[in-house]
């Protein structure tokens, strides 16, 4: 069996930026165990699989260790493949997923994700987070991930967490965020128990970041930077109970899987 595969740099304007995702268009779903093995073999933070039917485009995402309910950069990458490689001729793709319907609209050189907002609620800072980062954050909130707020951008840049402690946490991962002189805010993301020690650019984390910073800064449109070895800039907007997340994408590789 041969399967097409693409590797797309999402939230990027040129190769080697942003977050690389593998994208596998399918005629029909493969067994879950096989998709998990493909994701493990790809060894990227996410591999997206999608199937186009008369009812729409169904999408699923796998890390190297498990399936997840929502992924931003791999959804952006899948939309890029449909628009730029497979000739999808409409301006909006509506993906059907475990997190509901996820529209992606082409706006010039950018792709605009329309995701459900996930406002985080204040919580006590878990002892694992205190010990993992060696400091008490300004605030700690919780939705799908822990949202850990630092006072300064420098604190975020210097953070070198104990990943073993972060693996003990419930939930998906840990978002670090702080104010910035250059951007509205900056962030980092860690999900070691899902096989992602530090993610380069995490689209889905902005479903939690946008509500927090919109409330803190008093405006809905925000410009952010996710710091990582590759890094990426993200424009996001809180729109009621949705978050609009915009970024570019470029094709790095196209090939074929032989199984």
What does this structure look like?
The protein is an alpha+beta fold. The protein has two domains: 2-116 and 246-258, Roll (Diaminopimelate Epimerase, Chain A, domain 1), CATH 3.10.310; 121-234, Roll (Diaminopimelate Epimerase, Chain A, domain 1). It is 21% helix and 41% strand. It contains six helices and 17 strands. The chain has helices at residues 32-42, 72-85, 127-133, 153-158, 163-167, 206-217, and strands spanning 2-10, 19-26, 47-53, 56-62, 67-68, 92-97, 100-107, 110-116, 121-122, 139-142, 146-149, 174-178, 185-190, 221-226, 232-239, 242-247, 249-258. The protein has a 17-stranded mixed β-sheet that branches. The longest helix has 14 residues, at 72-85. It is globular and about 50 Å long. The model has no long low-confidence stretch (mean pLDDT 96).
